[in-house]
Model the fold of this input.
Amino acid sequence: MSSGADPVLAVDGLRKRYDDTVALDGVDLAVADGEFVAVVGPSGCGKSTLLRVLSGLEARFEGRVTVDGTDVRAGGSDDVGMVFQEPRLLDWADVRENVAVGLPADVDPASPAARDRVGDLIETVGLDGFADSHPGELSGGMAQRVSLARGLAYDPSVLLLDEPFSALDRLTKADQQDHLLDVWEQRGTTVVLVTHDVEEAVYLADRVVVLAGQPGTVASVVDVDVERPRERADPDLVALRREVTDALGR
Amino acid sequence: MAADTRRESDVSRESDAGRGSTGGGSASEAASHSLGPVSLPAASRFRPLLGLLVPAALVVGWHLVVATGTIAAYQLPTPVRVAETLYGMGASGELWGHVAVTLRRVALGAGLGIAVGTVFGTATGLSRTASDLLDPLLQSLKNIPSLAWVPLFLLWFGIGETAKVLLIAVGAFFPVYLNLSTGIAAVDEELLEVAAVYDLGRVESLRRVVFPAALPSLLVGIRGGVGLAWMFVVAAELIAASQGVGFLLSDGRTLARPDIIVASILLFAFLGNCSDVAVKEVRDRVVGR
Done:
């Protein structure tokens, strides 16, 4: 599955249960350093649950989940940043302060180095000039980019994204996708993106993991061997889109 | 260094420009002004004064019913008489002593109640165990009317300042406790998950997420607490005091001086309003950032 070296993120035989409902069963996944993996699946297949396990928000599960070789329950999740489906910003804090929430614990947010880092990230996500704005003054797309900058401030080994563009209109969504690709290429961060949008998955990812069933399990893995930068209408991408859609059983 | 400052100033300039273009409010306002009749802005400026019309009419009516003898002057003095009494007490200096004593009691009592309410509200808001232990008791204590405490407090603490300040503190405690406890417990679970994912730790997530999120609730509680402090100070001073606006009130009854009674009531209204406006102003500054 992964190319050669030890995977940054490894999931072995993951089984996650909520009371009587099994959300995920027998999920295996390995993500290599710097890889961009998309996880697609229909609603209710446990995509978001998978991210919650990876980010350490769900402590109870069976199986083995490691980041850089450390179990997520034993501090492995410390190396994981997460961009939620909603921006989840602090309304009372300005953009600078919101991004600074993501700074690692050993960085003093008031230090000049931290301020520069936050300033650079705000620039990286294309929000220069809005550092002192509050979330209420931002559009949905801008708020989501603040959330992305917060995730990057953490400088995680793995950045998890939970359908971050699902609430955006089509044009904004396309912009944000390209924007994410730029950031990923610049920083070489490992990315796991959960989405229900097949077109988005195939356009962005190196590899598309199809989750299906109830409980959810890996139904298929589709490699996207298309050179970057990609054209959205590239016939190869369109063919892969069909392959993923077939794997989803649609 | 120089490059840094330059970038900073660029940033602030751009943010101003951004606000101008996204806001657009000032532009449309200006448009409506130029379209409307010239008298419109003037009329809206005087709109707050409309609130004075009804009270003014009431004062005139009050004067008329007393002046025409519909109500006897020994039961209700004329507004002018009340004003003269207030002025007289102010000029002799008697008034300021009473006002200062009452203000001091309210400030100490409300301060104490707010402080203790903040501690208990934080504890029960954060800890399920603390909430299970304390909340049922406090919820039932809050239903005890203020006057019911008076005999007990007099018995325990005598007729000195302690009893009065503690009674007022009891009044101010409950709104602060109830609002803060609920406010902290109701902090958005989604934001707490953000704090967890970014490993803010217990102390930092309280400082950066939980307390700021609960601050509006605390301020609502403080406003209610200060309001109740004024109710409780009357209860305390009516029954056992030799000084204070509440004492003036009961003294007016003893002396059969309705002008003093009405003057005291108006004083309470004025002081209570001032403190309420002050607390509301603080709240708007803090929350309406």
About this structure: The first helix of chain A runs from residue 47 to 54.
